[in-house]
Amino acid sequence: MEYQQLAPFPQDFLWGSASAAYQIEGAYQEAGKGQSVWDQFVRIPGKTFKATNGDVAVDHYHRYQEDVALMARAGLKAYRFSISWPRVLPTGRGTVNEEGLAFYDRLIDELIANQIEPIVTIYHWDLPQALQDEYGGWESRQIIPDFTAYAALLFERFGDRVRHWVTLNEQNIFITHGYLTAEHPPAVMDAKRTYQANHMANLANASVIKLFHEKGYQGGNGPSFAYSPTYALDADPVNQIAADDAEQLNANLWLDIYAWGRYPKLILNYWAREGLLPDITAADQALLQDPLARPDFMGLNYYQTTTVTANPLVGGVGLTKQNTSGKKGTSQASGVPGLFKTSDNPYMQQTDWDWNIDPEGLRMALRRIESRYNLPVLITENGLGAYDRLEGAGEVHDEYRIVFLKAHIQAIQEAITDGVTVIGYTTWSFTDLLSWTNGYQKRYGFVYVDRDETDEKELNRYPKDSFYWYQRVIRSNGQQL
Ligand code: BGP
Fold this sequence. Notes:
Helix content is 39%, strand content 14%. The protein has helices at 21-24, 37-41, 60-74, 85-88, 98-113, 129-135, 143-158, 171-179, 191-214, 237-260, 265-274, 282-289, 359-373, 399-418, 465-475, and strands at residues 14-18, 78-82, 117-123, 164-169, 220-226, 230-232, 298-301, 306-309, 335-336, 340-342, 349-350, 356-357, 377-381, 422-428, 447-449, 461-463. It is globular, with a radius of gyration of 21 Å. The protein has an eight-stranded parallel barrel with strand order 1-2-3-4-5-7-13-14, surrounded by six helices. It is an alpha/beta fold. Bound molecules: 6-O-phosphono-beta-D-galactopyranose. 6-O-phosphono-beta-D-galactopyranose is lined by residues 20, 23, 169-170, 173, 226, 301, 381, 385, 428, 435-436, 438, 442.
């Protein structure tokens, strides 16, 4: 659909930015914090770009006031950040680290004092190492009560000031990268274990949302899903089936569970054929289907779309790892034999890390979520990872980021005009931060942080051109792009 005039953004639209504890805080063993699986994983040779880690990251733990002041200057209405589970529960459960909770108290209060609404992600990948060691983390049923108790602690402590909670950040990524491609901890490559761990994560997610609703906390709760809508390369029917398979396996498998509490039938069949069925009990089904376990919104992390063709069952392309070098054009096709494989899309340009640039894909993602699930959407991440250059008197001319974000905001407005309910947009990211496996050279922020892989330097902050641009966007409620 094409329009002569687009609907305006809602008056209370949450313009903001997002981050994750491990990627910004640093202070990795300060004030009683326990170790997370990332604290250890980054020390395995070859796992991250130039062996970077989040020991110091961008030192947000010590500089949060300066960062919040910059957010206030940009006019942010909301800031999405995650709580580090091992900072508040060093061994994952039991003894609470008051000093850890106190840090988030200070951060939340600072945000509120600056009229910035805190959006809290409960889990952004930094699982307490103690739980990994004790029972294998996400592979054990014990994670369900432990994750629920951790979330309950946060609801009790911060529920008076937080209205929007994100349960799990990108379950599809931390599970597949953790158990299928070994790009994330615990670096396993085993499809059966992948879907078993994924099933536990589904149950943990449902259990937390159910508790939130049962206890009647204010506000809403939902997972953030990394959704890359799939296109078929062309109108060849076999490629269309491949695209549908990719959508089933890469999206509906998670979104159907969140919204409807059931796995897609095509996936259950596929799992049964391949011997990959997780252990699903009647009690599991009851929890997943419980109306109280339905999210209040769908969190959407959108970066790119995927284009696919058919992939032969015998001799087909298998899964490959992501380009973490930042050398454009070094990615390989990736796929599942018998289902689909990725293909270059002639209509799109790519970033230096070979991510497709596709604003219309965001509109597509929003429309598909609305038409299939009829849930409001909170866009919890979207942004451009790029090389930035600090010049002269502390300037960064990131016109490319402005062009990227502008096109994506236009796509959101088109989706709103289409009839999708979008409640907010928190870009990735506010300051530059550590990219999990791409080091510090892949930057996303409105604020440049002066450090690199080998030198922490002074960690000074410099607003980029995009900072002033976003300030205008927010001030005009999306009218001046
Ligand atoms: C998402 C994660 C974020 C962030 C972002 C950018 O998957 O939720 O934590 O890292 O992707 O990814 P990358 O840093 O790999 O470019």
